Amino acid sequence: MIQAPDLPLWAAIAVGFLVLLGASITLIGALGLLRLRNFYERIHPPTLGSTLGTGCILIASMICFSTLHSRPMVHEVLIAIFVTLTTPITLMLLARAALYRDRSEGSAGVPQDLESVSASDIQQFAPDQP
Amino acid sequence: MSTLFLALAITAAQILLAFAMGCAAFRILRGPRAQDRVLGMDALYLAGMLLLLTYGIQTGRTLFFEGALVIGLLGFAGTVALAKFLMRGEVIE
Q: What does the domain layout of chain B look like in residue ranges?
């Protein structure tokens, strides 16, 4: 299914380059999701696709529709704002849930609580201090 | 000439996004724990949204944009609900 809108040369080059760049960045993020070993490492790479990948493809879509309809069409900004607002919320909720689950099970390799680490270090290095 | 270049670029981008969806689906099927599966579902929704946007560029219709917006909304709601379920064991307390 090879087809494309009839754009002038500069717009075609810009749209093609941005679409390809955004898709490659999203694929790199998905490969990171596949390859990294730990859940707390794996939670980072999908944000590559949700920030830079989405941004590139949305800018390409804006250029394409603005050139096709010969007036500025920026309704893609809606998706950009929405994704930018929601990605940190979902991933922070998910990381907190995973931390809670891992800590309640006492499994190994869990990031430690900063306050408990500093308290135990103080007791370790200065045992006579209360 | 420019149309052919654009068509090839968009098709290549769609293939790359399909591979990204495949990676996310593999993480859903294989993920050792439940939070890995939820993370894979979030990435799958995102790649699907981007794939729909590239279809919108390819056909020149704005219909696909609304579909992409709906997919983004549903992905957010689903991931938040599943994270809440993993945290508490219930979605609405």
A: 2-88
Say whether A116 sits in a helix, a strand or coil: helix
Residue A125 lies in a domain: no
CATH code at B2-88: 1.10.287
ipTM of the complex: 0.89
- For A5, other C-beta atoms within 10 Å of its C-beta total 20
Does the beta carbon of A16 lie under 8 angstroms from any beta carbon of chain B?
yes
For residue A119, give the H/E element and its range. helix A114-125
- CB proximity under 8 Å: A 30-69 to B: 30-31, 33-34, 39, 42-43, 46, 49-50, 53-54, 57-58, 60-61, 64-65, 68
**Other CB atoms within 10 A of residue A95 CB:** 18
Report the candidate in B66, B58, B52 with the shortest Cα–Cα distance to residue A75.
B66
Residue B1 confidence class, pLDDT cut points 50, 70, 90: confident
pLDDT digits (tens, 9 = 90+) for A17-36: 999 999 999 999 999 988 88
Q: Give the model confidence (pLDDT) of B19-28 as tens digits.
A: 999 999 999 9
A122 in a domain, yes or no? Answer: no
Lookup: tokens for A57:
């493809």
